């Protein structure tokens, strides 16, 4: 099968013919239909978040179950599935505490590039190729069955693929991590694929003020289509001052940082009211540090927290997002800026780096 392989940081992906071993216990073979082009993959390609090499990236995907391994009872060949890139074992402290997005096993295999049992399924001759759990920059993949969530026929595969990362992460930060309520005020900093889903999550949650800040006026215009009520051109305007002006000087109830930049993280913290919550959704570079005035924590009871993968619960949250899509409240098709073939994958990442995509999709159908 064809797959795009990362062999060296800072270099383009190479399109190669790989072998795929059959699924073992608790695993499924999936024929991918679509895979999103995500900033997280780009940071790994650049070496900012090191991975085991060589590796097949791609983690935002949907496809069809072709074969199931021993012990898999909730899926059968032919099922349409959305992929979760974070394995949840169901047994560790975090899974048992209702925090599967922090699963100890899932984080370990995400770093190590293997299946939960420490082995791999991708080969080029005798050479082992590492996984990014899903590894959807390939025609097919073997994944843990717990990472495949069944979806109904009505959801197009390209739209479904986006649920697997960008939509879960953005809307989950609103619904799960920050619990935005009707009438709340929200600031969103950054309008890439994650930021746009924070925006539409806030709209769905009933926020009355959804202020959005970005340096790119074209992306701000897209944010308005997804529910932004106020647009802030960060090249010339101060998001903190505007957030306060929209809330009688208090600051917003919730601020979401969707870039991963220490300066905009602090900006979000400064923009929230006393008792407000600043949520960091963007992934910063390893070693980046953000300073805040320590006395503001006890004196103003501000909360600065993170949201990893939207504090997700895979099966519950995917079902909720599918229902929102079918009721025309969640916009998925409109997120797709451009479609690519697998052999155009480096062009897709060039476009992502240039800032011209809300979301690009690799289509296999």
From TrEMBL:
**GO annotation terms (biological process):** formaldehyde catabolic process
Q: What's the protein called, per UniProt?
A: S-(Hydroxymethyl)glutathione dehydrogenase / alcohol dehydrogenase
User: Keywords on this record?
Assistant: Metal-binding, NAD, Oxidoreductase, Zinc
In this chain the Enoyl reductase (ER) domain maps to: 10-357
User: Among the entry's GO cellular component annotations, what is one?
Assistant: cytosol
Matching Pfam families: ADH_N, ADH_zinc_N
Statement: the UniProt record of this protein carries the keyword NAD = yes
Q: Write down the InterPro entries for this protein, in alphabetical order.
A: ADH-like_C, ADH-like_N, ADH_Zn_CS, ER, GroES-like_sf, NAD(P)-bd_dom_sf
Annotated Gene Ontology MF terms?
S-(hydroxymethyl)glutathione dehydrogenase [NAD(P)+] activity; zinc ion binding
Q: Which species is this record about? A: Gemmobacter megaterium
Entry cofactors: Zn(2+)
Q: Which SMART domains match?
A: PKS_ER (SM00829)
Q: Which family does it belong to?
A: Belongs to the zinc-containing alcohol dehydrogenase family.
